[in-house]
């Protein structure tokens, strides 16, 4: 069955039994699907100023805990949130931006059903190094480039890439934070120094081993959302991306 509109998606999703709960640092970040589901609530970390307006559309429960990291795992670890979730009608579905092993352990303990891929399925394809390996195996046309150890990417090696392609993209394959963190555009010496400084800072407490070095492709930045299911592949339209707008970009180094 093809879905051609939000109304079509709404008709299908309204058949979902039980309660869907979105979990996010802010409730607003999980508000997008509220009108598509018959029973939807949100658990959040921050008691932010827009909650009064959001609660006109769906219930919001805020975690009492104010210690630890601000992420989904911290929200689900909150005893008040756990008691709240256990009191909801079954089946209870949890909708998150991105799962993790810690989140999945809490999901299983609380008897929730996770909306989305578990980490053992997602990680192999999210890993940018592994994606190039899989892409080569299945014959995908990949952007010119290669994967190498970070210590092998010397200033001289980077300059060879720049001489060959004009401008290059460096992506830390072991760094999975979103929003472009861990991606660098290089075409002059000081930009490569910024990359090496970032690696040195972010190597504390984590292992950063591999980097993809590829040719920069000129053109319109675009993306497409897709979801592989047992019934087929669900895709959205090709959409433009807003990148590096001064009003939306940090004014200092990450």
Task: Describe this structure as you would to a colleague.
This protein is α/β, with parallel strands linked by helices and 254 residues long. Helices cover 31% and strands 21% of the residues. The chain has helices spanning 6-13, 51-54, 72-77, 79-86, 101-110, 119-126, 128-138, 155-165, 189-202; strands at residues 19-24, 40-44, 60-62, 92-95, 113-115, 145-149, 168-172, 183-186, 210-215, 222-223, 226-229, 232-235, 239-240. Strands 3-2-1-4-5 form a 5-stranded parallel beta sheet. Strand 4 (92-95), helix 5 (101-110) and strand 5 (113-115) form a beta-alpha-beta unit. The protein starts with 5 loop residues before the first helix and ends in a 14-residue tail after the last strand. The model has no long low-confidence stretch (mean pLDDT 86).
Q: What summary fits the major beta sheet?
A: 5 strands, parallel
Enumerate the spans where pLDDT stays under 50 for 5 or more consecutive residues.
none
Order of helices and strands: HEEHEHHEHEHHEHEEHEEEEE
Number of beta-strand segments: 13
Strand content: 15-25%
Radius of gyration: 21 Å
Average of per-residue pLDDT values: 86
Give the fraction of residues assigned to helices.
25-40%
Q: What class would the helix/strand composition place it in? A: alpha/beta
Give, in spatial order, the strands making up the sheet with the most strands.
Answer: 3-2-1-4-5
Task: Kindly report how far apart the N and C termini lie.
Answer: 44 Å
Shape: globular
């Amino acid at each position: 069955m093809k879905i051609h509109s939000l109304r079509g998606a709404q008709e299908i999703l309204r058949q979902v039994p039980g309660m869907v709960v979105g979990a996010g640092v802010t409730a607003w970040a999980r508000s997008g699907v509220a009108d598509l589901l018959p029973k939807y609530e949100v658990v959040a970390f921050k008691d932010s100023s827009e909650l009064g307006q959001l609660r006109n559309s769906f219930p919001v429960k805020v975690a009492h805990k104010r210690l630890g990291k601000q992420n989904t795992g911290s929200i689900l670890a909150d005893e008040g949130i756990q008691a709240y979730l256990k009191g909801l009608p079954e089946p209870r579905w949890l909708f998150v931006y991105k799962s993790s092993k810690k989140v999945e352990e809490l999901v299983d303990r609380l008897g929730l059903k996770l909306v989305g891929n578990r980490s053992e399925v997602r990680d192999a394809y999210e890993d940018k190094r592994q994606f190039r390996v899989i892409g080569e195996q299945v014959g995908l046309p990949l952007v010119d480039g290669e994967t190498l150890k970070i210590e092998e990417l010397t200033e001289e090696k980077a300059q060879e890439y720049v001489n060959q392609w004009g401008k290059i993209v460096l992506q830390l394959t072991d760094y999975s934070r979103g929003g472009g963190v861990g991606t660098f555009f290089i075409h002059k010496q000081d930009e490569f120094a910024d990359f090496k400084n970032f690696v040195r800072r972010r190597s504390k407490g984590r292992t950063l081993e591999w980097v993809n070095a590829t040719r920069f492709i000129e053109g319109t930045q675009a993306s497409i959302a897709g979801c592989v299911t047992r019934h087929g592949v669900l895709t959205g339209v090709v959409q433009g991306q807003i990148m590096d707008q001064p009003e939306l970009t940090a004014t200092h180094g990450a």
